[in-house]
Amino acid sequence: MKLLLHMCCGPCACYPVKKLRADGHEVKGYFFNPNIHPYKEFKHRLDTAVEFAEKVDMPIDVDKNYDLRTFLQRALTAEKREETLTEKPRCRMCYAWRLHQAAVYAKENGFDAFTSTLFVSPYQLHDTMKDVAEKIAKTVGIAFYYEDFRIGWNQGVEICKELELYRQPYCGCIFSEEERYSNRWKKQHKKKMKKLREEIVF
Ligand code: SF4
N or C: at which end does the chain have fewer Cβ atoms within 10 angstroms? Predict the structure, then answer.
């Protein structure tokens, strides 16, 4: 199958590319991530995605468009919707934007299907992403290739080390950077989730 692999970064591509190629697929990488903050981090991840593609001899196309303002507008609008135990509206928006762009690119460039390296991460909302991707596939009119790559997460980390790729410490957006480093945010979020769980029980 001729597959377009949306790449959130280089490290997350390590296992999926190995697995997809071993299964006989022809894979091309596609970098589209206007969610990443700040710009220097965006550039670093973009460069690492290209470095990875060169090291494993894989074709890649990168979208250098850094649409920070649109991302922030969409993220803040999404944040007004209620977060649940299983879903963050901001992340659903973020997945949808990137996967939609990948699906359109795949359709316009003669691919059989699209998928994403996001499906390797145990830190992403896997079921939300799957749901979003399936809906997008129907709307755009191209197949979504689903595989739960999380089984290869540790293997991917090892490949990443062998290839000496830069590994980022947070998901990507400015909100995720706060969530990673702010103890205050972590405490408040824990409280919020506890309250949500109690509301569901009673
Ligand atoms: S946490 Fe990650 S998936 Fe969620 S909005 Fe931020 S960059 Fe996107």
Answer: C
